[in-house]
From TrEMBL:
Pfam families: MEDS
The organism's place on the tree of life at top rank: Bacteria
Record protein name field: MEDS domain-containing protein
Organism: Bacillus infantis NRRL B-14911
Residue span(s) of domain MEDS: 19-171
Cross-referenced InterPro entries: MEDS_domain (IPR025847)
């Protein structure tokens, strides 16, 4: 699938960005796809914002450092996903999106091509799926207005069917380790 993610990257860059949902099953596929997507962005001259957990980040960065120079990696901003999403103690959709856009604003002002890859993980919270759905709706509007290519990643095994329906409603496309489903 890693060549498919690169094809999708190029397709959506031609169309001024978009919002992709990736529901992954296998860690190895996930790492390969993340590295392929980021590599395509680096080759395109994008500013890339990566939200990732520490375990995956180590694997991704090892592979990127083998392929790219420090200078080439200078447009890659990496943040721990949990620290970013829970910076205020709890997951607050509007605050998270505000921080997301604040992070990207200098690059938007320069008209730099922007790509984002965010692994969404959550702690137990009885309202988390409503909050995540609200977050995704706000992100969808923002990335489409600003021409950003954004991939939101969820572990398929931890993502219930009812929440998947909400994800389908606010993404242009949903992919998994084997297939692509165009939604708009």
């Amino acid at each position: 699938m890693d060549s498919l993610i690169v094809d999708l990257y190029h397709e959506y860059k031609k169309n001024n960005g978009g919002h992709i949902c990736y529901l992954y099953n296998q860690e190895e596929n996930y790492i390969n796809n993340a590295v392929s997507f980021i590599s395509a962005g680096i080759r395109n001259g994008d500013f890339i914002f990566l939200l990732e957990n520490d375990r995956n980040l180590r694997l991704i960065q090892e592979r990127l450092h083998k392929e790219f120079s420090t200078d080439q990696l200078s447009n890659l901003l990496v943040m721990n996903n949990y620290d970013f999403y829970y910076a205020q103690g709890n997951f607050h959709p509007h605050i998270v999106v505000s921080e997301f856009l604040k992070t990207l604003e200098p690059h938007l002002e320069k008209k730099t091509s922007i790509s984002t890859w965010g692994l969404v993980e959550w702690r137990e919270d009885k309202e988390i799926y409503e909050k995540l759905a609200e977050y995704e709706q706000i992100v969808d509007k923002s990335v489409n207005e600003k021409g950003i290519l954004s991939v939101c990643v969820y572990p398929a095994g931890k993502t219930p069917g009812s929440f998947r329906k909400a994800l389908h409603n606010c993404h242009n496309i949903v992919i998994n380790d084997e297939e692509v489903m165009h939604l708009s």
